[in-house]
Every structure is written in structure tokens, then in C-alpha cells.
Specification:
heterodimer, A: FAD/NAD(P)-binding domain, 7-stranded antiparallel sheet, 14 helices, globular, B: mainly alpha, two-stranded antiparallel ribbon, disordered N terminus
């Protein structure tokens, strides 16, 4: 019997696996996807982006998306709509494919209700822990996963126990100086974006080679701080970790207070069972909720750990949106054009001046904005020329030549709180099943209008900034359509078992040996990407598991 | 007079030289009439000109064979890709009483402008152009963009490493 069985292998799994393996415990990871190694990652736009080959085929595994349309809730399977809610199904999970923008939550994110008050229609609550309790683990992630950056003081800089990052920023495109100049003119503080990307070789991980392709691609050098590269590879060295890829966990079996086994399908489709003393679910928010709901039994008729009815509730995403502007080479001098043409170095700039904003004299939670050059994917760029007119022949070629040789787009991505509501949640679809015969997740999406207000306020500021830089065709797209790769919530942690699924240490209130360590625990998401916080919290939970001596007690 | 499928086949100038492609052991041969219409449509949409190579030079036919065998593309989408060729041919025969393959440049231009007035036609041309773009910008291992002709023409830097052999394509 294993000491620990972890379902999933991404940001919520890696820290637990590493810490428990290094503490001498035998850990099994069951991962639904394949185990791809560094030398299998190529800059192959067709395979990775056009065919999404590292996520499940929608005809075999899908979701059902429910939205409020024309006055009623309407559900559509993603195999019909083509709307893909998967995020990277492989050992290391979606951390393999992340861009690695890493921002910490800030102290006010832990006290959203206390600090900003109730918002009608939103289920805002304070976290059951303070920023200071998570800070040592944010620091740990900087060192263990590897976060590069440079601390720049600004009004919303979170308290840090170390002065600066352990790794200097990745190489930046000099065009950032133009951005910095315009920011300073507007009394804004441009921040080098912290990234989970190593600028130099560390151990067996090579430094970034600046290939110009990061988000949506696996890293061929190991520079990106994926769970696989930074944590699981290290855990394997202990000899205590077993990774079983291509193993889909269908359900967990339990009695009243304890999970007994995980039932999974192996690569051949055979049903298997594995026992462990302790189980950690970290399959990303939606799938973790689905697994618990699919694990209903006589003790938990509504789903495992769900006698409160809270599993799947208060799912959150990152609200906000994106935008951009085009820099025509004809409008800039030779040096700036040379910089604009250089695809390797990162743009690497963020703004957090608007982390708190005022509307009608009332302080409101704002957000973070990351600025980045448009993705280098060629097919995506080529397709964009068809957005205006459907042309062909030389008219099309002229547009393509302009698109590729005479301009570059600078984008911005806004990260705001997606307010938790009663209308964003995960349930099981009563009809549609996956290739293993298990009910798929039905995701109801009902964003709060407040999210749009905040997003649009920040977008206006970003557009103004791009205009001052000389960009053309400036646009912004703020909507209530969520980014599927920025998902959390659904298994809130809290002190009240009636209002939350997990306790403060992310152990299920109702079970003695079940933890959930992906982003599901988050009652609110902050105004930053979630990954750093998921990593940090998983390190914290690993510490708590070890300190609790639950595994040692069972050994006796 | 609306011509039926039998008439369509008799009017079409069938090309007998097939293009054979293997994907996951599955053999795809492009030699039937509808794929020839698709290739002729692609050639009109993206012709060789003073501004650069055309769909033939970028080996779109090889890429099309790969696409038609690619199970990562929904079956309905691959069917749409094939059906579009049939619909273009049927529309051509309805208007010109002969195959799309037998139209001159101006006739093809008028025909394609006409079909974009239909929802299916607009979507189909958009769809076909997307696959032409894929052929232009994909790694040469996919069968098109030979000698990196598309990358050189556009100045596109595809990053590295690039897949060099079939087994490097992560899902093949």
C-alpha cells in the first residue's frame, strides 16, 4: 500500500509529491494524460495549438457548458460547440503549457469581504488564513520552482521576506524602454513581470533559450517551472515516487470517515484499484469537483465530502479580458523597428498600479495587467487577416506580407477577481458520459456584472497607454466569457463545514484522509494568475500533512 | 437544368495521378474528383504570382492528405472539407454546365465570389484558407512548406527545436 495517492500531477500535486517523497513516504501519482519528456516538446504549432494534441479529444472527453441565453439556461456539449475547457492533460498538467506569469496574491486578497464589503449577488468571503501565513511558501516557490524577476516598489507591492527574487529577470526586449518611458510619464510603475522561467541553467534544467514560444508550448530546455520539471523530476530522485501515466481515476471509494481506494482505468482500459493511507485530489478545479461528485456512495449520497452540498459551488475564473495595439514599422525609427522584429526576448512588463481603483469615490478591487507581444504562432497571425475581409489571391498575400513584415502587436491581459456567484458552478451532466462511461462535468457560467465594470475600467487605461506609445488599431475585449486555463474554486476551504468543503489545511471536513490541493480551495481568486498561489498552498499543505503525523500514525 | 451527380462525374476532368499519404498507418489517396476540385479551388485562392509562391508550390496537396487522415480534426470538419469540393462543383455545373476544373481564371473568380454569398460558401472558403495557411506555416515534416518556403517568404521565425521526423509530431 502506498502512503499517499495523488490524483493529478500539476501545480497542486507537484509540491505535495516532492515534500512527502523527501520526507520518506511512498507516493503514487495517477495521471490521466501521457508522460511527455523535455525532448518530446517541439515548437510545433500544428500539433500543440491547431490540434490541441496535449488535451483530450472532445469526442471522447468533453464538458457541457451552461449559459444564460435569451432568458433561460441553455446547455451545450463542447463536442458540439468545439469550445475546449481542457488545459493540458499530461504529467505536469497545464503547468507544462503555461506562460509562467507569476504574481503573488496581496494581503487585501485574503480579506476581500472585510476590506471592500459585500457586493450584492456575490458570495465573497475572507480566506481563513492571512497573507503572512502563505508568504514563506511563496518564497519557497521562488527558490524551488524558480521564479525570475526584479522587485520594484509600488503602492501595492506585497510584503516580502526577501528583498528580491532568487533569479534575475529573463532577457527583455529593449522596446520595453519605450513602454517604461510612457508609463513614467503617466506616473505608473512598470514592473518586470516575475516569471517561472529560469534565465540561467540550474542543475539539470537549462536556462531559457528565448525561442519566442512559451505559452501553449512545452519547454524544451526545462527552464519553465512546470510541476514536472521543477518538482516531479526531483521527487523521482528520492526513489519514493511512482508516476502512473494514462490512468484515469473514475471514483474514490470510502467509508464514513476514510477514503479506502482509487478506482482507475489504465491505458488498456482495464479497471484497477489502488489503496493508500492518504489521498490528495489535484486534477484541476473542474475535474476535482467532478471526481468527488462521481464518487457518491451510501455515506456521501451527494458526492464524496459533499454532505454540505458545497462541492462544485463558487467556481471562479480570472475575470477581465485582453486587448492590444499594432505598431507599424513605418511609424518608428530603425532602432525601435529592429527591436520590434526580435521575437526572442520577453516583453515582460506588468502594471499593478490599479490593483485598487476608485469608482464614484468608492474603493474597489482592481487588477493586474500583463503586457506581452502577440504570440508568434504563424497560423493564428495569418488567420487574423481574414477577420476584416475574406480576400484571396494577391490581395490576401499583400495582407499577409504586411502582417508578418511590417508590424507587430503588443497585447495586454487583464486579471481581475471573478466574483463567486450562485451561478458559476460544476455539477454532473445527467446524460453525457466520457469514454470511460463516467458522467462529464456540466459547468454553469454566470459572471457578475461587477467583473465587467472593473475589466472595462482597466482596459480603458491600457488603451490610453498604448495610444501614447503610438500604437494603432487599439482594441479591447472585456467579456464574461471565462478563460478556461485560469480556473479555481469549487471546493472552498473555510472554518465552517456547512459553508465549505475543506478545512484551513485543505483536508476535507468530512474525511480524515482526503486533501484537495489544486486551485479548488480558493474562495476568491485575487487579481492575478493563480499558479503561484496553487504551488505555494500545496507546499503549505504538504507541511501540514507531515506535521500532522497522520501517515506515521497509520504506520503504527 | 440542375445536373445530377452522374453528369457531374462525366463532366469532371478526373486526374488519375493519386497522392498517397500515411498517417498512423492509415492510407489516404487523393485522386478522386472532389479532392481535385478542392485543390483547384486552393490554387485559385492562393495562386503563384509576383508576390510569391502558390498552393501548388507549397505542396498543399500533401498537406491536405495529412488533414483528411488526421483524427484530431473532428470527422464532421473533415467531411465539410470534402463536401465543400462537391458543393463548389455542383454550383459550377449548375451555372456553367461544366466542371470547376474546366473554368478559366475569370470564371473561377466569379464562381467563388458567388459562393461566398452563401453561408456555407463563406465558411468553406475561410476554412480552406485556414488549411492553406497551415500548409504554408507548418513544419516541413507535415509534407508541405518544403525547404521552408513559407517561413522564408514571410520572414517567420518558427522557433526551435522543430519536429524533424514523423515520430516527433507529438500525437502521431
Amino acid at each position: 500500500m502506498y502512503d499517499l495517492c495523488i490524483i493529478g500531477s500539476g501545480a497542486g500535486a507537484g509540491p505535495v509529491a516532492l515534500e512527502l517523497c523527501q520526507a520518506g513516504f511512498k507516493v503514487l501519482i495517477l495521471e490521466k494524460g501521457p508522460w511527455k519528456k523535455r525532448n518530446e516538446f517541439f515548437k510545433d504549432e500544428i500539433a500543440l495549438c491547431r490540434r490541441s494534441s496535449l488535451t483530450p479529444r472532445l469526442d471522447k472527453q468533453q464538458h457541457v457548458i451552461e449559459e444564460f441565453i435569451d432568458g433561460k439556461w441553455s446547455a451545450t456539449p463542447t463536442s458540439v460547440s468545439g469550445r475546449d475547457f481542457w488545459n493540458g492533460s499530461m504529467v505536469g498538467g497545464s503547468t507544462n503549457l503555461m506562460s509562467g506569469y507569476f504574481h503573488r496574491l496581496k494581503p487585501n486578497d485574503f480579506k476581500l469581504l472585510t476590506k471592500y464589503g459585500e457586493i450584492k449577488g456575490a458570495n465573497v468571503v475572507d480566506w481563513p488564513l492571512e497573507y503572512q501565513e502563505l508568504e514563506p511558501y511563496y518564497r519557497k516557490v521562488e527558490h524551488v520552482v524558480g521564479v525570475s524577476g526584479k522587485v520594484v516598489k509600488h503602492p501595492f507591492l506585497e510584503p516580502r521576506s526577501e528583498d528580491d527574487f532568487p533569479y534575475p529577470p529573463t532577457i527583455e526586449n529593449p522596446f520595453t524602454q519605450w513602454f517604461d518611458t510612457k508609463c513614467l510619464e503617466k506616473r505608473l510603475t512598470p514592473i518586470p513581470t516575475p516569471r517561472a522561467v529560469l534565465p540561467c541553467s540550474v542543475g539539470e534544467r537549462k536556462g531559457c533559450e528565448y525561442a519566442g514560444y512559451c505559452g501553449s508550448y512545452g519547454c524544451a530546455t526545462g527552464a519553465k517551472g512546470s510541476s514536472r520539471e521543477a518538482l516531479l523530476n526531483e521527487a523521482l530522485k528520492t526513489g519514493n515516487l511512482t508516476i502512473q501515466a494514462n490512468s484515469f481515476v473514475k471514483r474514490l471509494h470510502s467509508h464514513q470517515r476514510k477514503v479506502l481506494s482509487a478506482e482507475y482505468c489504465d491505458l488498456q482500459g482495464k479497471s484497477q484499484k489502488v489503496e493508500a493511507k492518504l489521498f490528495v485530489v489535484a486534477a484541476q478545479a473542474i475535474e476535482s469537483c467532478r471526481l468527488l461528485l462521481n464518487s457518491a456512495n451510501k455515506f456521501f449520497p451527494q458526492g464524496l465530502a459533499n454532505n454540505s452540498g458545497q462541492v462544485g459551488k463558487n467556481l471562479i475564473f480570472s475575470a477581465g479580458g485582453s486587448g492590444g495595439g499594432t505598431f507599424e514599422y513605418d511609424d518608428f525609427n530603425a532602432e525601435k523597428v529592429k527591436n520590434l522584429k526580435d521575437i526572442g526576448p520577453f516583453f515582460n512588463r506588468s502594471l499593478q498600479d490599479w490593483y485598487e481603483i476608485k469608482i464614484e469615490n468608492k474603493a474597489l478591487k482592481g487588477g493586474t495587467v500583463d503586457f506581452l507581444f502577440e504570440h508568434n504562432n504563424a497560423v493564428a497571425r495569418a488567420k487574423s487577416v481574414l477577420n476584416e475581409d475574406l480576400v484571396w489571391g494577391d490581395a490576401l498575400k499583400s495582407k499577409l506580407l504586411k502582417r508578418f513584415k511590417a508590424q507587430r502587436i503588443l497585447n495586454f491581459e487583464i486579471f481581475c477577481d471573478w466574483l463567486p456567484t450562485d451561478d458559476t458552478l460544476v455539477t454532473l451532466d445527467p446524460k453525457i458520459k466520457d469514454v470511460w462511461g463516467m458522467p462529464v462535468a456540466k459547468i454553469r457560467l454566470g459572471a457578475h456584472t461587477h467583473d465587467i465594470t472593473i475589466g472595462e475600467t482597466l482596459a480603458n487605461k491600457c488603451q490610453s497607454l498604448l495610444k501614447s506609445m503610438g500604437a494603432k488599431d487599439i482594441y479591447a475585449s472585456i467579456s464574461s466569457s471565462p478563460p478556461p486555463n485560469l480556473v479555481a474554486g469549487g471546493c472552498r476551504f473555510g472554518v465552517d463545514p456547512k459553508e465549505s468543503v475543506l478545512d484551513t489545511n485543505c483536508k476535507a471536513h468530512e474525511l480524515d484522509n482526503l486533501y484537495v490541493t489544486d486551485g479548488s480551495f480558493m474562495p476568491t481568486g485575487g487579481s492575478v494568475p493563480f499558479t503561484w498561489t496553487i504551488y505555494a498552498n500545496a507546499f503549505r499543505v504538504a507541511d501540514e500533512i507531515i506535521k500532522s503525523k497522520i501517515l506515521l500514525k497509520d504506520n503504527n | 437544368m440542375k445536373l445530377n451527380r452522374r453528369h457531374f462525374f462525366s463532366l469532371s476532368a478526373l486526374v488519375t495521378v493519386g497522392i498517397v499519404y500515411y498517417f498512423k498507418g492509415k492510407k489516404v489517396t487523393l485522386f478522386d474528383d472532389k479532392t481535385q476540385v478542392i485543390l483547384a479551388t486552393a490554387s485559385h485562392l492562393y495562386p503563384s504570382s509576383v508576390l510569391g509562391f502558390g498552393s501548388k508550390e507549397v505542396h498543399f496537396s500533401s498537406y491536405l492528405a495529412f488533414v483528411l487522415a488526421d483524427e484530431r480534426i473532428a470527422k464532421e470538419d473533415r467531411t465539410f472539407l470534402l463536401n465543400g469540393g462537391t458543393w463548389i462543383e455542383e454550383t459550377t455545373i449548375e451555372i456553367y454546365k461544366r466542371s470547376f476544373l474546366q473554368l478559366n481564371h475569370d470564371e473561377k473568380e466569379q464562381l467563388l465570389k458567388k459562393v461566398t454569398g452563401f453561408e456555407w460558401g463563406y465558411n468553406y472558403i475561410n476554412y480552406l484558407l485556414t488549411y492553406i495557411f497551415e500548409a504554408i506555416f507548418s513544419a516541413p515534416i507535415y509534407g508541405s512548406n518544403i525547404d521552408k518556403i513559407g517561413w522564408k517568404w514571410s520572414g517567420h521565425n518558427p522557433g526551435s527545436p522543430q519536429p524533424q521526423k514523423k515520430s516527433d509530431i507529438i500525437y502521431v
